[in-house]
Amino acid sequence: MRRERIRNFSIIAHIDHGKSTLADQLLMRTKTVDDRDMQAQFLDGMDLERERGITIKLNQARMKYTASDGLTYALNLIDTPGHVDFSYEVSRSLAACEGCLLVVDASQGVEAQTLANVYIALENELEIIPVLNKIDLPGADPDRVRREVEEVVGLDCSDAIMASAKQGIGIDEILEEVVRRVPPPPDNRHKPLRALIFDSYYDPYKGVIVYFRVVDGQMVPGDVVRLMNTGKEYQVDEVGVLAPKQVPVDALYAGEVGYLAASIKAVADARVGDTITLKKGGTAEALDGYQEVQPMVFCGLFPTDADQFSDLREALGRLQLNDAALQYEPEVSSAMGFGFRCGFLGLLHMEIVQERLEREYDLDLITTAPTVVYKCLRAGGEEMNVDNPCNLPDKHDNLQEPYCRMEIITPKDFVGPIMELAQQRRGDFIDMTYLTETRTTLVYDLPLAEVVTDFFDEMKSRSRGYASMEYHITGYRKNDLVRLDIKINGETADPLASIVHRDNSYRVGRALVKRLKELIPRQQFKIPIQAAIGSRVIASESISALRKDVLAKCYGGDVSRKKKLLKKQAKGKKRMKSLGRVDVPQEAFMAVLSLG
Ligand code: GDP
Ligand code: MG
């Protein structure tokens, strides 16, 4: 395809504003996917994504479109993930484009993620085409939302496109505007090869399939390429375009997007944001913006059945082939036995991995409460990262925790309850501005640990679902933090330890032992439960002993009934781990998260 007829663009939107529905419409209208093959939301391939209505992994599709000028264009749609955990991936996808559609729900308006995405688009100097979606809804108020986008985003919306992705309204206009307003890629064919990786996935037959944008030069099969940040070298087996199925081509030139296969073993070897160049005659100057993503949230994963340990290791290994951000290493706990300490980008990423392990690999897991990574100075003066509260040394100094800057957009009626929430979660108020007459932006600096628990859910419930939020990590801060230990039946239960602010420690300690008392089933003996800081017990409760043996009821009864009861018990026991001779159910490991 001639360079002048290429358009590379993305769709950005707040979650649920209709990005995937619109992408489907574009694919259908251009006959890239025919109606018969059209599975709703083609671009959201994974089951999990479809169930949760989120886009986790990005994808791309090349559409052929004959515009009203009679010429045929190649429109490359690069999809972006729709969750804050994946904002780095969003930024790399947008870096591969010249323009984007900004989709805003005309019955809602600008939300936190709308803004965050617009900032990334502006950083990448993209042409932004505003689309007001869902105009079919009775509650749609495109004029109000148009003004809002103009005021808040500072974007001229006089020619915003009125659309309904659901009813197929405005789709032709969108395609025409992409052709008319998104600039073609610049002419960089004669420079040495530089290509930007914006996604990859593992294919068991071809090895890793790398999605990239050729920024400079060209790539052909047989080229020996070097990935500039990992330093790895490969011979390219195949290059092609996504139409949207893989179609091999002879070459890809500057301005085009496509894929390559080069028998790469794991996605960690071809990281998002890395630059591909030629081994011979390449460049020494990598493209800007590469970051090695760091896991922010850690938890322990333990099989309920010790025999599943090696299955768990294998499953994590397979998932990691396809997920460069997933980290894991073996963890042995006297209480829990053998398992893994795993690192994730955020809570959503963590949930996705857990769910896949359980669904696709049929594992029964106990998950310990997620924590962030703290930094401290050990007694000897050596700095240490603590991704597991029970590893925090008793003697330490200068304990620091990660902070984030959060932007919340809310109808003004809910400002009070949301400010209260942010304050409870140790937030520092930074700013409040009126977005419009009825809506407000709140800015807070918050400890990440307070955000990765149930902040999002709380914010939603306090605002009846109307508030939205976005955050990014800003750095570490020293705080007066302590390790809160839990003792069950006199033994310290490592996996229940947490790190809390000293001012909250009594409240959390008391609430936690109370909650554990409710969650841990009674047993044959009395069970003391205590919360302690160092050697000082700050709260205690006890679970009284079961009065009757369950089996006693069956005395003299028939054997099959007894068996049934035992079986039922065994089933109920499934998600339990024995800590200090006490069976502790999965919910108890997460109890600390729900204390508020
Ligand atoms: P995404 O999260 O931005 O990808 O949003 P989706 O495309 O998954 O859409 C979210 C919800 O809005 C789905 O239930 C869609 O059916 C619905 N939706 C999308 N576009 C429209 C529209 O134009 N009109 C109406 N009424 N609903 C829409
Ligand atoms: Mg979607």
What does this structure look like?
It comes from Coccomyxa subellipsoidea (strain C-169). Keywords: Chloroplast, GTP-binding, Hydrolase, Nucleotide-binding, Plastid, Protein biosynthesis. This is Translation factor GUF1 homolog, chloroplastic. Mean pLDDT is 88; it is low at 53-58. The strands form seven sheets. The chain has an eight-stranded antiparallel sheet. A six-stranded mixed sheet has the order 2-3-1-4-5-6, sandwiched between helices. The protein is α+β, with helices and mostly antiparallel strands. Strand 18 and strand 19 (337-344) form a beta hairpin. The chain binds guanosine-5'-diphosphate and magnesium ion (MG). The site of guanosine-5'-diphosphate (GDP) has 17 residues, from helix 1.
Give start-end ranges of low-pLDDT stretches: 53-58
Average pLDDT metric: 88
Residue share in β-strands = 25-35%
Coarse shape: globular
The strands making up the biggest β-sheet line up spatially as 11-10-16-7-8-15-12-13
Distance between the termini: 57 Å
Total E-strand runs: 34
- State the major sheet: 8 strands, antiparallel
| Radius of gyration, CA atoms, in whole angstroms | 27 Å
Q: How many helices?
A: 14
Bound ligands, each once? guanosine-5'-diphosphate, magnesium ion
**What structural category do the secondary elements indicate?**
alpha+beta
Oligomer: single chain
Helix coverage percent of residues?
A: 10-25%
Protein name: Translation factor GUF1 homolog, chloroplastic
Catalytic activity: GTP + H2O = GDP + phosphate + H(+)
Function: Promotes chloroplast protein synthesis. May act as a fidelity factor of the translation reaction, by catalyzing a one-codon backward translocation of tRNAs on improperly translocated ribosomes.
InterPro entries: EF-4, EFG_III/V, EFG_V-like, EFTu-like_2, G_TR_CS, GUFP, LepA_C_sf, LepA_CTD
